[in-house]
Amino acid sequence: MSTDVLSDHELVERLQSLHPAGQALIDEYYRRCIPAYMEFLGIDWHTGFYLHGGDDIGPEDQARMNRHIADSISLAAGDQVLDVGCGVGGPACRLAREYHCRITGLTPVPAQADAARRIARRMGVAERVDFRLGHAGALPCADESFDVVLFFESACHFPDRRRFFAEAFRVLRRGGRLAGEDWLAAEGVGTADAERWLSPLCRHWAIPALDDGPAYVELMRAAGFDRVRFTDMRTEMDLERGFAATPTRQADLAVEIAACRQPFTRLILEGLASLGRAVAAGAFTIGRFTAEKPDR
After folding, report:
1. Are 266 and 274 in contact (CB under 8 A)?
2. Residue 258 placed within a domain
3. Any idea what the CATH number is for the domain that residue 193 is in?
4. Is the residue at 248 inside a domain?
5. Does 253 fall in a domain?
6. What is the number of domains present in the chain?
7. What is the block-wise mean pLDDT of the chain (296 residues), using blocks of 10 residues?
8. Which residues are catalytic?
9. The domain containing residue 99 runs over which residues?
10. With b meaning 16 or more CB within 10 Å and e meaning fewer, what string describes 257-282?
11. Cα(275)–Cα(282) distance, integer angstroms
12. Distance CA 75, CA 290 (A)
């Protein structure tokens, strides 16, 4: 059965029972999540950079994360950039406007690309951004055609990350830069804790599996990158502020989940709860990465 004819209830059942999730299920999840994600995340579908002692979280935190990743590889005017797994194009549009670079966003979901083009027109950057359809394991781009490849919490959804990093290396020009941030298993999480805290998270969020930071570093180096750097972002920001990691916030979510009758919305709420529990247990983190393609 094609995934697009599944009811929301059937899609949720498959995501929960078929693990790891296949590419078709992941794509369908991201087609249907557009309204819900736009409602609670806006146009930037990733974690924010949360300041210690800050007030309520909001869009400025996500914008701060966009800039943090861009600045980590000195994004500059004139750079040709590929954003892999671009969602509805929020980071691509914001970075094109703030840094005056040209960005191509890649998504496998036509509805996301359509939404991204509308957002680009609304933000006045349609001439500096382009959105294409394709998967991370087979980038529809010529060899050595970009100065920068970015990813914002998309690689965790890729069934073959080794292939993604090889493709990123291929499309970068010599001396090109790779930068991104992603959901990770915290280093040192044992099998039992991974099953307790991370497996539910993966089933809720259509993630095949979570690697840790050193695993990403190894894949980048195997692809040919050098100057590979990994930072556990718990050392840079207040990660817990962005998640339901306290008993009070968990209790609030439990009330919402109990009252929710829409299967897809309930899945997202349960996912927020599982994320918060994993953060509180120290099993989950956000990792930041930079790397370069040798210029020789």
Report:
1. no
2. no
3. 3.40.50.150
4. no
5. no
6. 1
7. 75 78 82 86 92 84 96 97 97 97 96 96 97 96 98 95 98 98 97 95 91 98 98 96 92 95 90 96 98 94
8. 153
9. 3-239+284-292
10. beeeeeebbbbbbbbbbbbbbbbbee
11. 11
12. 12
